[in-house]
Request: fold
Amino acid sequence: MATSNLKWQQNSTCRWERDVDEAEAFYTTMARKFEGLFDHFNLLHGYLLTIGQELAGTVKSQILHALQGAWICLRYDHPTIASWVEYDHHAKRCKKIYEGFLKDEVHRAPPAWLKETFQIVSSGQSGQEWCNSDPPAPKLPTLFIVTRNSIPGAGFTADIVLRSPHDVIDGIGSLHLLQNLLKYAARAYEDPRAFALPIFGDEWKNLSPPLRVAANIPANLTPEQDAKLNEILQHNAKLRKEIDIAAVPFRCGRTIPARHQRVALRLTQQETSKVMAACKQLGSSVTHVYHAVVALLVLGSLERRVTRRLVRYINYCLINERAHCQKQYSTPQHAVAVYHSVSGRSLAIDWTVPAISDEAKSEHERRHDLLRIIKQVKDHYLTIRNDQAHIGLVPSYWGLSTPAYPVGREVPPVPRPNETPSASISSLGVIDNIISPKHGFFEVDDPWVTGEELGTGLGLFLVTFRGRMCLSAAYNDAWHDRAEVMDFLKRCNELVFTTLDVSPRVASSD
Reply:
């Protein structure tokens, strides 16, 4: 891929274009393949719960006005939030498009972009409930202010939801963007007279490049990189030969996805502190432990037969690549970008499924099994983290995972469900390092990010905020139900507590 085509070029007075790189192309292609659902593959949800004091109606209006002004400021700082991807039938490739405002357009009247992408939702639902109600997928990144029913004495509560196509922004970027939003909103609310909207016209200078440019990844592989890539591909192919692959059980019968859903469990501060301390003493991170637990639960759910059999859990780890980007692109200034990757070399964990006649393992044996898996997961993560050659192969990993783009003008058939789905986990770490709990008037509680789940698998997310760890899961209710997925999350926490010898209290669910 020629990197010169990945740089933003002015096409007309207010229009800028560039090609998409391999990371963006993956999400663009999958969105196109699922277009028949009138939804976006892996549409990203970023969520903040903001809490205010008891307010009069006029103050509520001031808050919404402050948030709207903050959203306009973000458009100037991060103009990529107003970009989209479309297929150029003449050039036969996908392009990312940005169209700027006419001079002083924002100051004369609310532009069409603002009316389209800043939405007030007064459904009486919480933001979480609204996200689970299958709202329409926006073409552009859109900020939804979900206002709850007013309760006397309880004050005004608004849940802020960012919904965006995944080829525009990723999870870590969404958190940085929401942090920037609240910084502006706090200033606009506290001193509205001194808060001025930016003058548009040169905001195109802030357009974010794709990962290949941001990380300065050459267009062509070296012979050494090519040899390593082939070795990894052969290794991954070999992992799937002559062995049963562990899959998450799902409800058969449906062939078309239904509603994306999210459920979550939050630990107490005391439980979180104990888990973190126990993981540290073990020499592993919380991510290593929870990924190992997810793998063991998938393996442990497999059907017993007359004889024992060897099965294999295969998955990957998600990696935030912002640390590999050049200095100007590694900061929250370029939040609106797809700067992440998946591991090229697969994570593989073998497990012997007991026979029907085998006795149940003792607690000591189960703990030993999990400690072995934790070490395997840890070694896998550290191998990738310490691999200096990894970032140079990231575009190749994305490219090899991307199917052919459906180039016709007709809507393609929706892909059939995966018959051997797995359970993945994405750890976003300590969110306080990205989003401050308090911004003047605005207070934040329970921020989270998830991708739209249209498949048969489970996508788990692990975050910590205000000293409380939250384990959540995204699933599609065509193949899973709430009780089943909640039970999976509960068993994850219980297995962590047992293995780390942590005394739990009852975790709260969302």
Remarks:
- The domain at 3-214 is CATH 3.30.559.10 (Chloramphenicol Acetyltransferase).
